[in-house]
Every structure is written in C-alpha cells, then in structure tokens.
Automatic annotation (TrEMBL):
Name of protein: ubiquitinyl hydrolase 1
A GO CC annotation given for this chain: cytosol
An individual GO BP term: protein deubiquitination
Domain USP: 166-529
Disordered as annotated region, ranges: 1-21, 76-96, 454-507, 1072-1122
Annotated PROSITE patterns: UBIQUITIN_2 (PS50053), USP_2 (PS00973), USP_3 (PS50235)
Record keywords: Hydrolase, Protease, Thiol protease, Ubl conjugation pathway
Lineage: Eukaryota, Fungi, Dikarya, Basidiomycota, Agaricomycotina
Pfam families (alphabetical): ubiquitin, UCH
Length: 1156
C-alpha cells in the first residue's frame, strides 16, 4: 500500500492581526508622493508650481511626512496620566477587545531611526543621546578639549612601590636593567651603601653625571618620589647603554656590579670598600684528589652568583647537588698528579665554603646549541622553594682546620625572581617578582606597571562560582596598564603554561606548597634568614644623600605643580561643560516643528549631527580650545543637501531636516556656529527639478511610445516600407535604452553611429542586409514625429552601384594576392622552411646575407593571410651604425637572438626583385667562423647591447670537472675562433652525423646546462642568485657566479655597474655544503658559521674595566692571541679563548679561574 500523501500546510494569514491598525501612509512610498504629479498634473516643465518644488524636497502636505514628537523634550506634568484617562475604550458589546481591527484616519505613525530616516520633520536621531548621559558626555567633552594627560593619575599610592621607565619617554630595550634595579633597591644594606658614596675631591664637579649619582637619584625617587613611575633615562645615558638593543640581563648585572665595586673601592669608609663582597660574595673551592696518593689540590675562588644548569621538572636543590657532584678523571682524562709525577685516576669536585647574606642563583636559561651554532632558550621548568636550607651544601672545614659554622646560619628565604618572557634567546621581555621588605608583600614589576601579588601559595581548585568571584577582584596596581601588565603570580603548579606552569612527573613536588615552578625564571635571589624574625621589620629605609634628595624634591614639586594646574584647567573645563550641555540640550529639545505653518530653516542631517557632536569630538585639524563669547565662529557645511547651484537638491531630499528658525538663531548666537549656506524650505533648485522632471517624464512616455510602435511596426513581405538601423531599433525599444543620456534627447536613427547601417558612403543603400531592418510607414511616421530631422531610404531603393563594383574588385584583389603569395612562397621555399628554425650546417661554405627577423615573421604571416598588408621592404639599416659598420657580431649567438636571421644569398637576390632591399650584409660560414662584410664596430655594439630596460641572459652551469673561470681563461677563449652556436633565430645544427640530437644533450656538452633569466639593469647580484635558486633549486650560499672570469662576490652590485650586456652569458658553479663558502681558500677544516651576537656592552661604560679607563677595541670572539699570550680554556667546552675574554666565544660560559 503506497504511503499516504502528507496534508498541505495552511497558507499564512494575509490580513491584519487582531488589534492592528491599518497604516494607509505605508501603501504609497514618500518618493512616489514627491513626484506623483509628473505626467499627471504637469506634462510640461513650464507648468511646475512652487507647491511642486516643495514636494520634491518633502516639504509639502502631499508628502504625508508626520511631525514626530521630540523624544527629548521635557514632558509636561501629569502627561502620562491624562493620556491614560483620555484613551477611549475600543471594546464593543458582544465582542472581545482583541478581535477588533481598528481602521483610523488619524493614525499617529511610529517613530524610529529607520522609519524616519527620510522624514524631514523628525529630529530625534541626530546624536542627542550623547548628551543625555551626563557622565559619558563629560568624558567625551574632556577628551575633545585635550587637557593633556591627568598628572594625578601618575601620583603614587601610599606605600606602593614605584615602576621604572615612563611610557612617554620610551627607553627602548632596557627592561633588563629595570628588573635588576628593582632587585637592588629592595636590598636595604646595598641601597644604604649606594647612598653613602661620596665623590672624590677632584671629581666633585662631574659627580652629577656619574652612574653612581644617577643610581642614588633613581633609588631616592623610588623611595621618596610622589609619582608612581620614575624614568631612569639619565642613568641609562650615563652608562651609555644602547636603548635600541636588548642585552643579556645577567651580563649587565655582573658588569654593573663590577663597576659599582670599583666605585666602592674608592670610598674612605672601610665598610663601603667591601660592601659588594660582604653582601653578595661567597667562596668556593675547586678540588682535585689523586686516587693513588690522596694528594689534595685546591683552588679557592669567589663568586657573586651560583650557576645552575636546568633539567625538566627538577628541584633547585637537585640541580645544585648535580653541579657539586664528584667527577671521576680516568681513562684518557687522567689527572697529572704533581706528587706522583704521572697520570693518575682522580676525583674532581667543587665545594662551597662560605655563602653571602644575599645569594643569587643564575639559572642557565640560555644555552648554546652546537648544532645550530646559536643560543637558544631552554623551556625546562625548575621548582624552587620559598625557604632554602643551604647547610647541606656548605663544607666549612677548610685546609687550615677552622671549625664549621653553627647550623642554621645558612637558611635562606626567597626574595626575588627575574623572568624572561618570550621564546627566543635574542629578544623578549624581562620582568621581576620581588618581595618588598617594607610592605612585607610580593610585587610584579613589569617596567612601569607594578602589580601586587596576593599570595605565593598555590591556590586550591575552586568551583565555577568561586572562580567568577575571584576574577571580579582586580589586583591592585600602580594605575598603569600594559599589554603584558595583567596580574601574573609566580608560576606554580596552579599557573597556566604561558606563565611557566610545569607538569611534574613527581607528584610530591606539586603537593609540596613550599615549591614554586617556572619556565621563564633565569635568576633567583635568596636572603639569609637571621635568628630573629623581626630583624627585617626593624630595618628602616636609609636616607638618601642631600644631592639626590634635592633632585627628587624638585621632581615632586614639579609634579604637585602640574597637578594643581591640571586641577584648575579641569575646574574651568567643568564649568564650560555644564554651560555647553545646558545650551545644547535646551536647543535640541525645542527645535522640532509641529505643523507646516511654522517658520523653519533647512539643514542637512549630517550638519545637525556634526553640530550635536562638535563639542564631544576632537577636531582632526586642530586642538579644541575653550572659546569665550564673541571669539571666532564655527561653520558647518550644508553641502549634503545642496546642488551645484547652491540650492536645495531634490536628489538629496533624504538628507534634509527642518528645524525652527528660532533654534537656528540660537545656534548662531549662543554657540557661534553657522550652517552654510543658509537655506529655507522654499529654496528648492528649479533647474535640478526640471532635469529630474524631464527624465521622469521620459521614463513614463518612452514605454508608451515603444508599445505604440510595436503595434504598428509589423510589415508583410513585399509591402512598402522604410529601412532603419537594426542596432538602433533594438536599443531604442529597451525600457532603459543604453543610448539614452539623462537631460538629453535620444540619438536619431541616422546618427553617425548608426547611419552606415542603412546608407553607404555614396548615399545609396548599403549592401550589408544584416545591419538594417524594414519598418511600416505608420511606425516611420511615429518615429518621424520624435525625430523630425531624420530621413531614411524606402524599401524600393536599389543597392548602391558603386559599392557593388568595389565588392567585385575586392574579390579580384584577394584572388590576386593569394596567387602572389603562393608564387613568393615557391620562389623562397628554402627561406620559408628553414628561417627562424635553426640549421647552420646547411649554410656551410654557402654565400649568405643577414636580414631582420621581424621581416621573416611578417612575411610568413602575410603568406597565411594574403588579404592582410604585405611587408613593404627588407631594411637592414638597423644593423648598421653611424660609422657604416655592424652593430652586432654574428659570431656571438646572443647578438643574433630575436633580432636577426641568416638566409642564402640567392634568396636575398630574389627578395631584391620582389621588395625594396638594402643595404646588403654579406656573410659566409667557413668552418666554425662566420666571415662578414662590413666589419663590426665594437663601441657601437657595446652601447647598443648596454641600452636595455629588460633583457635575457644565459646562465651556464659548470660541470664538476670544469675549471673555475678566470680573466685569463676568458681572454684566451675570446681570442679563439668562435664556434657557431645554434640559436632560435638562425639556422642551427639539429643533426650531427645524420642523426637528430636533443637540445638538452647538446646543452650538456656545451659546458653543462643553460638557462635563460630575465634581468634589468638595476638587478643586483643577490637578486640574480635568488632567481637562480628558484630556477635550479640551488641555495644562494652554494652558488659561485662568474662573469668574464671574475667571481661576483658583492651581492649589492647591480648588473649595470658590472657592465653586463644584453643576451650575455654567466658561469655558475654549485658548491657542496661542506666546502668553505666564505672564500678563505684554505683546505683545512673550518668551523661552522655562528650567528653574530652583536656588540653586547662594547662601547658602553660597562664595557671598560673601570670608569676611568679609556675604551679599548674588544678582541674578536673565538680568536686566540698570538704567540706569547696565554689563552683561557673554557671549563665547559675546552675552547681556547683570548686571555682577557669575559666569556667563552663558543658557548658563552663565563670564564673563571679553573685549575688545569
């Protein structure tokens, strides 16, 4: 049984819903009402009345534009109550109120931004809402006034740390310095030592320019400044740091600390002399113990920081223990014992003897990758504790038998973490997380953005509701914002991956709340915990020196003065805002019309929107200022409502708005603003109205005329009629003819564009029957009324006799040209078959001639189409210079490409009979050399081949057994007879020994493969090598390019400067990757090229050994001094460095005194 057909759904209701009013104004569009009188009331432009002009702009009663109530007008008291009480009941006896359809003649149209978009009587959506919200209006008004940044926002919160690097004066890539300055500032003994530094008597005058004084000012501003951000620009300038280059933060720390230590050494106070050593310096011992005689060799050294290698998800203690573990020296790595006087097995290890009060751990976050010869950033996470017990790592038993220190003195608490944000070792951003000893809180320092970190403890997992509550609490900052300045806690097991979250395999680490993890930490700062927990609280801030205090007090005074001045300007602006808002709101609340009879002014909608927002938007051309009464005027253009005649344009009626004349006068008088031009509703442009009227009347009359024409145009075969252009008639019958131009009459059928479709040049009937069409006499009379000047031929007219005769002659001419082409092809068959193909062997010992290749191409095209124009002559003068010599050399294949061809002499003699030829360029192939007359003019040839905008050159790839080209070999080859090479435009040898040979095989035999590349005179060698890489897939670093025996080593040199000629040839050798491509010529094995590391701190004050030492030229990295100079062997990679090298040139390990 077939399935039942589903029932069709009932059609949707088409009528009005219950209670919906019938809106009659919607039945006819306003555009139709504005021009509904065209063709009905008015059929001639002379009959257009003022009422019609008003209607075109929407100002007439016939437009039915409602007068929308002003939504922003102050409502009269009890208006809502009276409206409710006076509303009649719509219910009827026996009917439900919802079933009644109300048809009202006095409907009130709904007002909306879309509905009233073209209503000139609605003034409700012109930007008034911007003024209604006082808070938003005030903010926009103040922003438009541009009162400069509020300095009070820069004020420092009570007890809040100060950020560094003001955003208004960008210091560039110096965030690494800011991070360490924040760390050193929190070290109270170190800060006190900086404050106590005094200048020497001989440098009293220059002390203010020294780094130590600028550091005093920086610390004083961070301590007593009243601004939330301090700009250490003078400290950076005193150190001569390059603000455009980011440097290694750890290297900066070491060099700057060394500089400060040298300054402290100059002080008279003994405590200052040893401040760096007392605060940051520890002692370690490198020990080697002979396994045979137990002889112990020790080398004691000092350290300012302990370097720790990284392993993924490892504890700090484990990595520290790994660095101190015993190394066995055995096998090929035996130790030369001085006691045994022979190589012996031994143990080597490092011991920590003394630890400083402030302990720095340098995490080797940036490692050297020997495979790429570049530094890279390690992504290993490290777990470090808040409380660190170092007693387990300290061996206080010294060689002289001193006692070990008591337990508990080497317990340390975390005081700071320095972070590097970013994936690369060569760029990124440095931040610091530091414990503020005064506030007893942790803070995140991101340059000028300082954020308080609520807790270092890992947060327990919370529900969604608790998360949303926690997220709503914004972290307290110093008022600055930055893209990366959101709150970042120390990266713990609850942190995100981006902030250094680690996923430890050992769950016990994650469960230990004492540990913190990070993938970005590169330095950890710990401070020794004293016996009394209140010692830190008892420490008070040291007092800055008077010089630094004066600088900071001046900054504070300037800041307070700026705040007072801004407050005064803000008060004045507030008063101006209140006055302006009151005036603007009072105007737009009373500017609406209520009927047609009110006196009105016309403004464009855009002009009114510009006026309502002009006090809230900053001008693009100039800064907005407070304008007092009578000072200057502001003009707003009404061009969005006017035409080229300066009057109301009916085409822009949708942009027009009518406001009360009184409101316009108030705008001019109180707001000093004029709408130009000043327009009234009766100033509609009569010229524009007439143009639109004519076009609309045409759109009404034209379809009617076409319909009438179609009724009378049919014509039977043989009936009398008239001829008309078929193309014109097809276009004219369209509803919108393409020929029609607004405000202009249509082109007549005998317009020059269509006249030849009916009449020939002799005035007779044209022979082309496809272009003309017959019409009836009635349709002819209809068109004659529209185009009185038009005349045409009747169907009784005969074809033009002259045109018929010309057609007959043309047929004979084509037949004759075809016969002539066949005859020439037969006479010049050899030239036709072989020219532009290439076959030089057939021309050996045969007299030849040189002809333009363009003539051969044009002649062959004429053979295919004899009716086309035949070549006029064979002009070879283009190959002759002003000296009567040749400008090309036939023995150079590149000279003959594209431009010239060689033919037999007997073909030339045939051409002389058929065409105008000359002058003769005689040639003959003798063996492998062309003999020719006249001779070659080398100067003119070079000038001709050098004058090109774009050309091709040949790149010849040398084989492995080919010698490298040299100027000598090139000169020798140039002096030898040149073999005739096959080209695209000459007769080339495509057969060898009677057998066909492929072009690829021939090219390989000719010293390797060849490719053609397009170049310009401005193409550089580097760009040419890139083209070769694309064409041959040979890396540019593996290319050695030769031109005329010289290697092209300068990649920036242009081919014009190198003298490369059109269709020239270059040689290319592909080098293997293991060959020295740097051109050293040495057969010895060369080290891999390493990335340029930049100048580091060379050229800065930190690049000198002391502040007073002159700048020295730094030694080249990776180069050991000559004989007589002892190098330094790297303890990590054993590379021999220069004696004064600070770090290893290969792996960048910091060099120290390491025993042999």
């Amino acid at each position: 049984m077939p399935p039942k057909r589903p029932r069709r759904t009932s059609p949707a209701a088409q009528g009005l819903s219950a209670g919906e009013k019938l809106k009659r104004a919607k039945l006819s569009g306003n555009e139709h009402l504005a021009w509904s009188w065209v063709g009905t009331e008015v059929t001639s432009a002379a009959d257009i009345a003022p009422e019609h002009l008003l209607a075109t702009c929407g100002f007439s009663r016939r437009n039915n534009h409602p007068f929308c109530p002003n939504k922003y007008a102050a409502a009269p008291p009890n208006a809502a109550a009276s409206t409710t009480e006076g509303q009649p009941s719509a219910s009827a006896s026996g009917e439900l109120e919802d079933d009644i359809i109300v048809v009202s003649d006095e409907e009130s149209s709904a007002c909306g931004s879309k509905i009233c978009k073209s209503n000139p009587n609605c003034l409700n959506y012109l930007g008034q809402e911007k003024w209604e919200d006082e808070g938003k209006a005030r903010d926009a008004f103040m922003n438009a006034l541009d009162l400069e940044p509020d300095p009070t926002l820069e004020s420092r919160a009570e007890g809040f740390p100060v950020g560094l690097k003001a955003p208004s004066q960008n210091l560039g890539a110096t965030c690494y310095a800011n991070a360490f300055l924040q760390v050193w500032y929190q070290d109270l003994p170190f800060r006190a030592g900086v404050y106590n530094c005094e200048p020497s008597p001989d440098k009293e005058t220059k002390f203010s320019e020294s780094p130590i004084f600028q550091l005093q000012v920086t610390f004083a501003a961070m301590q007593a400044g009243k601004q939330s951000v301090f700009n250490p620009v003078k400290l950076v300038e005193s150190l001569r740091l390059r603000t455009t280059e980011q440097q290694d933060a750890q290297e900066f720390s070491k060099l700057f600390m060394a500089h400060l230590d040298s300054e402290f050494q100059k002080q008279a106070d003994p405590k200052l002399k040893s401040l760096v050593a007392d605060q940051f310096q520890g002692k370690q011992v490198y020990t080697t113990v002979c396994s045979n005689c137990n002889t112990r060799s020790e080398c004691e050294s000092e350290f300012l920081e302990l370097e720790v290698t990284l392993a993924n998800n490892a504890k700090l203690e484990d990595r520290l223990r790994a660095s101190l573990e015993v190394e066995k020296l055995e096998g090929d790595n035996k130790y030369l014992c001085s006691q045994c006087d022979s190589l012996q097995e031994a143990k080597r290890f490092t011991e920590l003897r003394e630890l400083p009060p402030v302990l720095h751990f340098s995490l080797l976050r940036f490692v050297y990758d020997l495979s790429t010869m570049e530094r890279k950033k390690s992504k290993h996470a490290i777990w470090f504790p808040e409380m660190l017990d170092m007693n387990q790592f300290v061996n206080a038993q010294t060689s002289d038998g001193k006692k070990r220190k008591r337990a508990g003195t080497n317990k340390y608490q975390l005081r700071g973490v320095l972070l590097h944000r970013g994936p690369s070792a060569y760029h990124g951003h440095y931040e610091a997380q530091i414990f503020d000893t005064k506030n007893r809180s942790w803070y995140q320092f991101n340059d000028e953005v300082v954020t308080k970190i609520n807790s270092l403890r890992p947060q327990p997992k919370t529900t969604g509701t608790e998360k949303s509550k926690g997220a709503s609490k914004a972290a307290k900052t110093n008022g600055k914002t930055k893209a990366s300045g959101s709150q970042k806690s120390l990266s713990r097991n609850s942190s995100k991956e981006e902030n250094g979250r680690a996923d430890p395999k050992d769950a016990s680490i994650a469960d230990d709340l004492n540990y913190i993890s990070s993938r970005d930490a590169y330095m950890l700062i710990y401070a020794r915990v004293s016996g009394s927990p209140t010692d830190l609280e008892d420490l008070s801030d040291p007092q800055p020196p008077p010089r630094a205090t004066c600088v900071v007090e001046e900054l504070n005074t300037n800041h307070e003065k700026a705040c007072e001045e801004y407050s005064a300007r803000e008060t004045e602006a507030e008063e101006h805002f209140n006055q302006t808002r009151s005036m603007v709101m009072d105007i737009y609340r009373t500017w609406s019309l209520s009927n047609e009879d009110e006196d009105a002014v016309v403004c464009s909608k855009q002009a009114l929107e510009a006026w309502s927002s002009r006090h809230l938007v900053k001008p693009a051309d100039k800064k907005m200022t407070l304008v007092s009464e009578g000072e200057g005027r502001y003009s707003i253009s009404n061009e969005d409502a006017t035409c080229s005649h300066g009057k109301l344009d009916p085409r822009k009626a949708s942009n027009m708005k009518r406001i009360q004349r009184a409101a316009s006068n108030r705008i001019a008088a109180e707001d000093h603003c004029d709408f130009k031009p000043y327009l009234t509703p009766g100033e509609a442009c009569s010229e524009c109205v007439q143009e639109i009227f004519d076009e609309r009347l045409y759109q009404i009359d034209h379809p009617r005329l076409v319909s009438l024409f179609d009724q009378v145009s049919p014509l039977d075969e043989g009936d009398f009629g008239y001829w008309i252009s078929k193309a014109w008639l097809k276009d004219w019958r369209l509803a919108k003819p393409k020929m029609h131009t607004p405000s202009e009459p249509d082109s007549p059928p005998d317009d020059p564009e269509y006249a030849h479709h009916v009449m020939c040049e002799h005035g007779g009937l044209t022979a082309n029957v496809i272009s003309r069409k017959r019409i009836s006499p009635a349709s002819y009379e209809l068109l004659k009324e529209l185009f009185p000047e038009w005349s045409t031929l009747s169907t009784d007219s005969k074809l033009c006799a002259a045109c018929e005769a010309l057609i007959a002659v043309s047929r004979e001419d084509r037949r004759g040209a075809k016969i002539q082409a066949e005859e020439e092809k037969a006479k010049l068959k050899h030239m036709h078959d072989n020219a532009l193909v290439g076959n030089n062997n057939l021309l050996e010992n045969v007299p030849c001639a040189l002809v333009p290749a363009q003539f051969i191409r044009a002649w062959r095209q004429w053979l295919f189409h004899p009716a086309n124009e035949r070549p006029e002559s064979v002009n070879t003068s283009q190959f002759i210079c002003e000296h009567g010599l040749l400008v090309l050399d036939p023995n150079f294949p590149g000279d003959l490409d594209v431009n010239a061809a060689i033919i037999r002499r007997n073909d030339w003699e045939t051409l002389e009979v058929l065409y105008s030829c000359g002058p003769l360029i005689a040639m003959e192939n003798i063996g492998n050399v062309w003999l020719y007359e006249p001779a070659v003019c080398e100067d003119c040839r070079r000038e001709r081949k050098s004058s090109y905008d774009k050309t091709e050159i040949s790149i010849r790839l040398l084989r492995a057994d080919d010698a490298n080209p040299t100027p000598e070999t090139y000169a020798k080859l140039s002096s030898l007879p040149r073999e005739v090479q096959p080209t695209l435009v000459t007769y080339g040898s495509r057969k060898v020994g009677g057998m066909r040979q492929s072009k690829r095989i021939r090219q390989v035999r000719e010293m390797g493969r060849r490719r053609k590349l397009t170049i310009t005179p401005e193409t550089t060698v580097k760009e040419l090598k890139i083209q070769i890489q694309t064409e041959w897939e040979i890396p540019t670093i593996a290319q050695r390019l030769y031109y005329r025996g010289h290697e092209l080593a300068d990649g920036s040199a242009t081919l014009r400067a190198l003298g490369v000629l059109s269709h020239d040839t270059m040689d290319l050798r592909e080098e293997s990757e293991d060959i020295d491509l740097l051109g050293s010529g040495s057969d010895a094995e060369q080290p891999a090229a390493r990335r340029a590391e930049g100048r580091a701190f060379g050229g800065t004050l930190l690049g000198y050994s002391s502040a007073s030492s002159p700048p020295q030229t730094p030694p080249s990295q990776g180069v050991v001094d000559g004989p007589g100079t002892a190098g330094v062997s790297c303890p990590a990679c054993t590379y021999d460095n220069a004696a004064d090298a600070f770090s290893c040139a290969m792996c960048e390990t910091v060099l120290g005194s390491v025993p042999d």
